[in-house]
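Help needed: design a sequence for this.
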């Protein structure tokens, strides 16, 4: 099964990247997802609402609608010219080894799975999916926070596993998984069909990012009162202690602390999403080439 990205290379440009007139940063449209009926995984279209149709054509239309709510081109990711070239080069290096397998980004809430995942999808010519969004679509409830509230965390986790199972039968996808997807071993059996990449971000930086946007959309962190940074930091610390061994199952680890150290400083807050995406491609390449060497 396969989904194709909505971006096509133009002469003189490489897939998805556009140089603005008059210079400045490169930008890339976030790819749209195009799926055909025969490429459709069952659960993703078979929600508790009319999307549970048995008709494959109808299901395809439903999934397409769920993945393409934002028209292509409405979100822009900005790169410098240097970053654009490196991203292009690294993506070309990785693609033959990846051989169409999906990339699953794992990591704590707010670690940048969505932001970095969209860049990776763009440069690899893959389609991007956010598993939280797919659970919302499958259940027919518009936010994860509401799913937790109206049902339960266990209900959300069951649906998350079903979404990951269905995605695992597809190819050429970058998937931003939910922060807690790593806790269920069954999810690893799905994700290990592709390549798993852990975005490892210091908890202090995570708590700052999350406090900046508020905790309302993140039910496991939400508190009605108190300092949002302090509360988020405390909760993230306890979640991370429970989960760090699970995150470490990933094939590749992208540590923001290591990137900062390589750059000769220790400020992870100045690392841009594209810098992190480049490191992700480098780590993916080392893992895949080592694996290929062992096989030969
Ligand atoms: N490198 C970065 N530097 C600064 N802020 C960032 C960076 N990457 C992502 N962010 C910001 O952090 C927040 C969380 O990012 P994002 O949604 O990509 O994370 P996520 O891992 O998908 O989160 P969740 O699992 O909770 O959905 C967003 O507000 C995003 O703009
Ligand atoms: O870390 C977690 O357990 C979660 C992360 C989010 O992506 C959502 O999947 C949900 O809020 C749970």
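Sure. Designed sequence:
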């Amino acid at each position: 099964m396969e989904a194709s990205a909505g971006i096509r290379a133009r002469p003189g440009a490489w897939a998805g990247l556009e140089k603005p007139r008059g210079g400045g940063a490169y930008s890339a449209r976030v790819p749209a997802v195009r799926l055909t009926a025969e490429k459709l995984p069952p659960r993703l279209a078979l929600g508790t609402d009319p999307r549970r149709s048995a008709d494959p054509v109808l299901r395809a239309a439903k999934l397409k609608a769920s993945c393409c709510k934002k028209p292509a081109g409405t979100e822009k990711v900005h790169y410098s010219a240097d970053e654009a070239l490196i991203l292009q080069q690294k993506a070309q290096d990785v693609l033959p080894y990846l051989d169409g397998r999906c990339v699953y980004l794992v990591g704590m809430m707010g670690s940048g799975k969505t932001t970095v995942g969209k860049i990776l999808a763009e440069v690899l010519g893959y389609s991007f999916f956010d598993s939280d969004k797919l659970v919302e679509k499958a259940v027919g409830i518009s936010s994860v926070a509401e799913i937790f509230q109206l049902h339960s965390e266990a209900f959300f986790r069951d649906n998350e596993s079903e979404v990951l199972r269905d995605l695992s039968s597809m190819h050429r996808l970058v998937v931003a998984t939910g922060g807690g997807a790593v806790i269920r071993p069954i999810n690893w059996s799905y994700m290990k069909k592709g390549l798993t990449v852990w975005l490892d971000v210091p908890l202090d930086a995570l708590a700052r990012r999350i406090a900046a946007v508020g905790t309302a959309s993140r039910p496991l962190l939400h508190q009605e009162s108190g300092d949002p940074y302090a509360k988020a930091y405390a909760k993230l610390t306890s979640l991370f202690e429970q989960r760090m061994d699970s995150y470490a199952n990933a094939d590749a680890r992208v540590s923001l602390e290591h990137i900062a150290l390589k750059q000769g400083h220790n400020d992870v807050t100045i690392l841009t999403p594209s810098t992190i995406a480049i490191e992700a491609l480098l780590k993916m390449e080392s893992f895949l080439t080592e694996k290929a060497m062992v096989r030969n």
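Residues 220 and 278 are 30 Å apart (CA to CA).
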